[in-house]
Automatic annotation (TrEMBL):
Origin organism lineage: Bacteria, Bacillati, Bacillota, Clostridia, Eubacteriales
PANTHER family documented for this protein: PHOSPHOPANTETHEINE ADENYLYLTRANSFERASE
Location relative to the cell: Cytoplasm
Marked site positions, Transition state stabilizer: H17
Species annotation: Clostridium tyrobutyricum DIVETGP
The name this protein goes by in its record: Phosphopantetheine adenylyltransferase
Reaction catalyzed: (R)-4'-phosphopantetheine + ATP + H(+) = 3'-dephospho-CoA + diphosphate
């Protein structure tokens, strides 16, 4: 059984993430979407909300599940008996950071293999931070995030703007 972990902040999940999830679900027996708990970073959505939004959009994909994790990704993988890390690559600018992480993860767990998937062209400009910005300025986020979570993101953006 090949289990892959797709790690990230997912604040919030975008159509780019969902595309990578769907494509990896066709390759691996089980894909775990792993949401990083980062105590140093106050997010837009909290961890429970991010997991909830991901659950909303993956609910029809049988071999995909979602969990949060803290600490090292390689430790989480060992716990889950996962062999593969899935990463999406958008542009050359992603490469250096991802290459560094790949080497570090290999050092920590030589058995773990990272598989990179190129983003689909239609999502190549997408990032969670761009989505947050568009939403906070009340722009249209259709086609940027899955339809099921548009209202959640816009609601959060309105609350966020009121607070700050
Ligand atoms: O969506 P992001 O924020 O680019 O995801 C980054 C993530 C979660 C993949 C990365 O920060 C990570 O794997 N963090 C866990 C800590 C870890 O294992 N660090 C060692 C590799 S540098």
């Amino acid at each position: 059984m090949k289990t892959a972990v797709y790690p990230g902040s997912f604040d919030p999940i975008t159509n780019g993430h969902l595309d990578i999830i769907k494509r990896s679900a066709k390759i691996f027996d089980h894909v775990i979407v792993a949401v990083l708990v980062n105590p140093d970073k106050k997010g837009f959505f909290n961890i429970e909300e991010r997991v909830f939004l991901i659950e909303k959009v993956i609910n029809r994909i049988e071999n995909v599940s979602v969990e949060s994790f803290s600490g090292l990704l390689t430790d989480f993988m060992k716990k889950k008996n996962a062999q593969v890390i899935v990463k999406g690559l958008r542009a050359v600018s992603d490469f250096e950071y991802e290459f560094q992480m790949d080497l570090m993860n290999k050092k920590l767990c030589p058995k773990a293999e990272t598989v990179f998937m190129m983003t689909s062209a239609k999502n190549s400009f997408l990032s969670s931070s761009a989505v947050r910005q568009v939403a906070m300025f009340n722009g249209c986020i259709k086609d940027l995030v899955p339809d099921q979570i548009i209202t959640d993101v816009m609601k959060k953006a309105r609350k966020y703007c009121k607070k700050s």
